[in-house]
Design a protein that fits this description.
- The protein is of the alpha/beta class.
- The chain has 2 domains: 4-91, no CATH class; 102-213, no CATH class.
- It is built from 3 helices and 6 strands; from the N terminus they run H-H-H-E-E-E-E-E-E.
- It has a 6-stranded mixed sheet, covered by helices on one side.
- It is globular and about 60 Å long.
């Protein structure tokens, strides 16, 4: 006759194995994400959202196959569904929507020659502060963000700004627009007659654009 205590112990061991599997995979994913973020912040390598997200989906799929022997892992399934939706959403975006990496970027040029022609980020927070730039010639630049928040800070100079968001919100000084396929523009009075001007084009796929003057 089978010892009830042995059966209970065997069942408890199986449950313990099953319980520990999900957190282990999640911990490894967090460790890799943290390492990637550190390398990106140290400029050792650029972490691209268009590569990270599909790789994360592959990792979840492998984890589910490995763990299938002891049942369904709800947390991993949920993570896989979310990542799949993100990948599908990304497949219908412009090919360059997620260029520029992942994380937080702060750009604060103080001279004309320090202003880049383009500021790009895949996912995260992108802040471009042009308030300290002293205009000695025309400035033309663009800001592009896949998913997240784009903040533009401009000085009190002649400006021409265009902004568009596929889904989200645009705050242009005191005017707020939200929804899908949102677009707005601003042109300073006397822009066409000014000797030095700033022309800026902003584009966000999913998130928000905020323009303030300092």
């Amino acid at each position: 006759m089978t010892d009830i205590r042995e059966v209970q112990r065997g069942t408890s061991d199986l449950q313990a194995d099953r319980f520990s599997f999900g957190p282990i995979i999640f911990g490894i994913a967090l460790m890799l994400a943290g390492l990637s973020w550190i390398l990106d912040r140290l400029d050792v390598m650029e972490v691209k959202a268009s590569l990270v997200i599909p790789l994360a989906l592959v990792a979840v799929g492998v984890a589910l196959m490995i763990g299938a022997y002891d049942g369904i892992h709800g947390g991993l399934v949920a993570a896989g569904v979310v990542l799949t939706l993100i990948v599908v959403m990304g497949s219908v975006t412009p090919l360059d929507a997620f260029r520029g990496g992942v994380g937080e970027r702060l750009h604060n040029p103080t001279a004309i020659d320090q202003v880049d022609k383009a500021y790009r980020l895949g996912i995260g927070s992108l802040q471009v502060d042009l308030s300290e730039v002293n205009l000695t010639s025309d400035v033309v630049t663009i800001g592009e963000l896949g998913v997240g928040e784009l903040l533009l800070i401009v000085p009190d100079v002649p400006l021409a700004i265009t902004a568009q968001v596929d889904a989200g919100e645009i705050i242009m000084f005191d005017e707020v627009l939200s929804g899908t396929e949102v677009a707005n523009s601003y042109i300073s009075a006397g822009f066409e007659q000014a000797d030095e001007t700033m022309t800026i084009d902003l584009d966000v796929f999913l998130g928000s654009i905020k323009v303030v003057r300092r």
